[in-house]
Write a structure and sequence with these properties.
Length: 374
């Protein structure tokens, strides 16, 4: 799993004045909004006794821990310890990690890492979000697979005739013509010619009025680090774009959140149908990704076989190898893994630590609980 990226953690309309717990990179975070509406993302682990702040209460711009009521401000600094007399100073180490947080494209994003602002990779641009010709639906689903497996699955055009033969794949035309990959440091994009069958159901009705004149449609597949895939399908009836966020809950569980945009059937009445189509595709992928072995994406490119049609995934694996060399990988010791009892709770360093060199070394919080102490 990669640190030092902006992660879309939650649909923005689910983040309000009540604390919301989210999980990413195997760690828990609490999201809430200040009185002025700004989203906040803090480590969910109270530094006092490891209480879950997400079970607490938002007080003004602060969040109060449910256990002993310590209050943390939006920068993660503890500003009140109710058991102490008012005149006692609050120790500087009494703070939780606070992550830079923004709201964009209907998502709340947090920067999970400690890079200073100028060095942070960008948030991908979703131009359709503010374009009034597009209508958006949200979708989400949890799968028991590693996020890099689900991420690569969406990028992968060659699986559609086999896994999605009853949706948009065409088993009679499995060949993927040559395509070029356009790359930069944070993304890779390819225009791929596919031959999906004409849509059925509600969309098929519209398609009948605009018959298929082409043998193929151009689909743009793109990945954006660390975990986002865009699919832009240019159907004769209009454009369909799926932005697919593969959120690593743990090594082996992924929360897939999707923003689906379409510029046809843009009434609210067609939303349920659009969501149903997305759900159908994900349910087709689910058993495949949940049964891939090894469960985790190999580190060595040579550990799996690749063909020309895997060019986008190869580009990802190469870029990932570079970032691992650069120290951006969170290994097994850094994250909470598996379904077993949690023994340690670690916290991803936020920029607040590097801003305070005095705290950087002293302020390593490792709470131990559960079995190890029993
Ligand atoms: Fe949070 Fe004590 S555990 S205030
Ligand atoms: Fe798929």
């Amino acid at each position: 799993m990669l640190k030092n990226f902006w992660y879309a953690l939650e649909f923005a309309d689910r983040v309000g004045r009540e604390p919301a717990k989210v999980t990413c990179l195997g760690q828990d975070f609490v999201l809430y909004r200040t009185a002025a509406g700004a989203p906040v993302c803090l480590s969910d682990l109270c530094v006092h006794r490891g209480g879950a702040l997400s079970m607490g209460t938002v007080v003004g711009d602060c969040i109060a821990c449910p256990y002993h009521g310590w209050q943390y401000d939006a920068d993660g600094a503890c500003v009140r310890i109710p058991a102490n007399p008012a005149e006692r100073l609050i120790p500087r180490k009494a703070r939780v990690d606070a992550y830079p947080t923004v709201e964009r494209y209907g998502m709340v994003w947090a920067f999970l890492g400690d890079l200073p602002e100028p060095q942070r990779p960008p948030i991908p641009v979703i131009p359709e979000h503010d374009d009034p010709v597009f209508r958006m639906v949200q979708f989400e689903m949890e799968v028991a697979a590693n996020y890099e497996r689900t991420f690569e699955n969406v990028v992968d055009a060659a699986h559609t005739p086999f896994v999605h033969g009853t949706a948009f794949g065409n088993p009679d035309k499995p060949e993927i013509p040559e395509f070029e990959v356009r790359k930069d440091d944070w993304s890779a994009t390819a225009d791929i010619k596919l031959s999906p069958p004409p849509p059925k159901g509600l969309w098929g009705l519209l398609a009948k009025r605009k018959p298929y004149r082409h043998e193929y449609v151009t689909v743009t597949n793109a990945w954006y680090l660390p975990n986002i895939v865009k699919l832009h399908v240019r159907l004769p009836i209009g454009d369909l774009l799926l932005y697919d966020f593969n959120i690593p809950l743990s090594q082996d569980r992924t929360l897939i959140k999707i923003l689906g945009y379409r510029n046809f059937f843009t009434g609210a009445w067609a939303d349920a149908n659009a969501r149903k189509r997305i759900g159908k595709i994900l349910l087709q992928d689910q058993p495949v990704v949940e049964n891939q072995r090894p469960e985790l994406l190999p580190f060595d490119l040579a550990d799996e076989l690749h063909t020309r049609s895997d060019a986008l995934q190869i580009a990802y694996r190469r870029r990932r190898a570079q970032l691992i060399k650069d120290g951006w990988w969170l290994g097994d010791d850094d994250i909470i893994t598996g379904d077993g009892p949690r023994r340690t709770a670690t916290v991803i360093a936020s920029p607040a630590r590097t801003d305070n060199p005095e705290l950087a070394s002293a302020w390593v919080h490792k709470a131990r609980a559960g079995k190890e102490q029993a």
